[in-house]
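Example with several molecule types.
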Amino acid sequence: MWDTIIVTPMTNILLLIYAFVGNFGLAIILFTLLIKIVTHPLMANQIKSSARMQELMQSEEWQKIQAKYKDDKEKLAQEQMRIYKEQGVNPLGSCLPTLIQLPVIFGLYQSINRVMGASPLQLIDLVRSITDPLWAWLGEAVPAASLGALLPINTQFLWMNLGQPERILADVLPFGGIPTLAIIVGLTTYIQTKLTVMPSANPNDQSAQMTKMMGVYMPLMLFWFSLNFASGLAVYFIASNVAGIAQYAALGKVNWGNLFKFGSEPAKPAPAAAGKSKSKK
Amino acid sequence: MKFKRMALPLMLLLLALALSACGNMTATQGFPGIVVLDETLYLSEGLHVYAVNTVSGQEVRLGDAPLRFPKESDNNINLFAPVTQTASGQLIFPNSHPSQHSLYSVNAETGAVRWEFGKSKGTWIAGALAIGDDIYAPGGDGTLYALDSNGNVRWEVALSEAALWSSPVSDGELLFQATMDGKLYALSLPNGRQVWEVTLDGPVVSAPVLDEDGHLYIGTLSGILYALEPSSGKVAWQQKLEGSIWGSPAVADDRIYIGTLYSTEGRFYALQITNGATIWQRSEDGSIIASPLAFDDQVIYVTEAGRVQALTRDGSPRWQADLKGKLVSAPAQAGDLVIIAPLQGDYLLVAFDVNGAQRWTFKP
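Resulting structure tokens for the full complex:
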């Protein structure tokens, strides 16, 4: 079911782009952009919801109830729900679009992996996708998208073989070369996280802590992925990061001032939070 | 709070694991490679090549330890292509790891590495061909390498920009090598000079087959089976089948047997050797990816869905067995046994006699 609804259609669309541009690296970039455009309304919704939530959490009324009911979690939850209703904010508004996007992200990842067809099991899946009865007409309608014309996929892009982990100067350097693409993935992920983080009302609250950790772990995780897996995925990560920043920029939500800001945010503490912070010291 | 701080790294770790599992990127996902040499079966199965006695189903031992290569698991080694044995007894097998590209020569009695050939820069998929002590290795970089018994390059020919998935075959004078570009080359055995080249209608992942009369048969992923004249490359006949041809055909008497991958289903054909006309065909619920095995008066094929099917020459069922796992590797004959290597099954090997009775299983 997952394969029929998500992976096979995505694989065939990616292959169709490849059939027209004849370059797999370019096809991955265009496909990533296409997915970003299709999912943009969801993403925009998520960004707006996050911003509204952030504004709400910085409001005086919100801070007041945090202080007033800090020892009564049940009452605090009731009051928070009341404010959500009054302000017309859906607390899940920023989560749901992300959840809906998750299958797309997984499917995109799997389809790129499949198209590279670097191993026998991957190639079998790729042949199945191309010859799937629902999609086989594509090869007949567009000869360049037929199995015979598509395979083998040319995985060479710039200096990289997209089916292999990328290294430069691998023959010269003793430690196996420099993973330039993995470094770019780590950097663009870090930059994206920094640029798109909303300022928090209280740097010590859970969401601010989580965001801060995300800014550290996400670039490291994607760096590790790019270091070990096929460089086609690294191209996807970079395209996705750059497109993600562009999405935020288009909505005027890029926080440029955050790029070179390190350590805790000097946000204006709310009275209750400030008190809590002082008592900790 | 401490738990919540750990929640994000844990979620990211789970995401990493999920993506790794979805993508199957940690290793080259190949088929188990099986080759029977005398009474020993060599099984290339991911982390090791196992040596198994075909009579007992027990692993061959070297002193107290089993004879395996490598002796200890090594994450930089991934072995799937079938082993090749040279006349002097050395075993040749390629490492199909995505980023480590070596071809090994190993002492068959001790498992010790004799030499390692690392010139190819792509992932090895296909097994090599040995003629005497000479080795012909189809590289993951699209180059066919001819090596001597010490691993020195005698000649090399760049045939494709894509990896060579098909093993070469030879009639003693010419070497026949197919490519993923849909080309079939005939090369001079002593020097690699190209004698002829034929363009087929689609990519080829399986080795061509030579029959006793010297005809060459080869199938493409586009589903066309070709019969060619080995001396000239002239196409004698071609037959379009339903689905993609992944495995090599089996030739017995006046017939050619071949299976196809038709979406998630399979088709199995018996064709006239003279003109490719269909004698009979069968449909299967699972794709037929592996080459069939024809011997005595029966033909045996396996399906990806786990079925072992034995038929008489006229296509009537003789016996069948259903195993757990995917059956994507060709069945091997060892004396009066048929040995199957399931992928992701309960056992690495299952042996049947000619009547379908299970004789032994192997799991290290």
